[in-house]
Design goal:
about 20% strand, alpha/beta
């Protein structure tokens, strides 16, 4: 019917590419977009110019408050105070609300967390949130090698296996989403089928245990550490646990809502991922589950977010993430 305007609406990127090649009008399903583009995603960090004396007061322990009419800031957002007279004079703080003074960050640079120390200010922000029981939802976004999963796991081990334990167990999960072409069905029991998908998590855990496979397997057998696919989480109620969901950028908004509603009393949940590495053809950087949670919960006092910027895995990983 040439007289009618026909538009094909699809979330399948491959379908939209085919439509473009055929000259057909095609649009994405925009209702679920939470940001216009990836650059507009909330970062969890802001800089703010203040009088020189306020920075001195902050370091001396004198309460420093922000004025609501002078800055737009969200609960648990990190802020760098910069002196109006000397740009090199700065202070890093965390904001809670306008009625509470700015809080200093906890220093993990000397002792570290389970032997892991922060290598940049964003990792310092992440550990500050990960070790805070008053912030039960933490989101970490960053390119490959920025330390998202490793920081989440070391914080989990510190608060679950060290005495006195803050949480009863660690639950680590991720969506089953292949990179590139799938190799088909995997043989064996459910646990054996899941092993290839969860191998990256086990690699990180083995590194944190100093390649001590026996200790890791002991904690797995005792149920102190649970590693499973997100596919089987529906119907569960997970209480008093430190829960980490990796590769959240491959999940849909419906899936992450299902997961977050599984969280029971006393549970802390960490969502990590890289919105530049999405393997699910039905989501993109503006409407995936990770971007969705970051934007929707940024105004809530129960949630905190950090965008990690610097790759620390290796020089190869950092250059590949930036250039390729």
């Amino acid at each position: 019917n040439e007289k009618r305007k026909v538009i094909l609406v699809s979330r399948d990127i491959n379908m939209r590419v085919k439509c473009d090649s055929l000259g057909l009008k095609c649009e994405d399903y925009n209702l679920e977009q939470v940001v216009d583009n990836a650059e507009g995603l909330y970062t969890g960090f802001i800089t703010h110019r203040v009088e020189d004396r306020l920075i001195d007061n902050f370091y001396e322990g004198i309460p420093v408050f922000l004025k609501e009419e002078k800055i737009k800031i969200y609960p648990n957002q990190f802020i760098m105070l910069i002196s109006t007279t000397d740009e090199k004079k700065t202070a890093l703080a965390r904001f809670k609300n306008f009625k509470v003074p700015l809080r200093k960050l906890r220093d993990f640079s000397k002792k570290g967390i389970w032997g892991i120390r922060p290598r940049n200010k964003e990792q310092q922000f992440a550990l500050d949130l990960l070790m805070d029981p008053d912030v039960p939802v933490v989101t970490l976004v960053g390119k490959a090698g920025t330390g998202k999963t490793l920081k989440a796991l070391c914080s989990a081990l510190e608060q679950t296996l060290e005495l006195p334990p803050r949480y009863r167990k660690i639950v680590v999960t991720k969506p089953v989403q292949p990179v590139g072409r799938d190799i088909g069905f995997l043989p064996g029991t459910m646990q054996e089928k899941l092993l290839p998908w969860l191998a990256p998590i086990q690699d990180n855990l083995q590194f944190l245990f100093g390649d001590d496979r026996m200790t890791l397997e002991m904690h797995l057998e005792e149920g102190k550490i649970e590693i499973e696919a997100v596919t089987y989480i529906r119907g569960r109620s997970i209480a008093n646990a430190y829960m980490i969901i990796d590769e959240v950028q491959n999940m849909t908004q419906h899936e992450i809502k299902t997961v977050l509603t599984r969280v029971g009393e006393g549970t802390k949940i960490i969502l990590t991922g890289d919105i530049d590495q999405i393997d699910n053809v039905y989501v993109d950087e503006t409407n995936n589950a990770l971007s969705y949670v970051v934007e929707k919960l940024k105004g809530q006092s129960i949630a905190g977010h950090v965008t990690l910027l610097n790759g620390e895995r290796s020089e190869v990983a950092s250059i590949a993430a930036d250039i390729l």
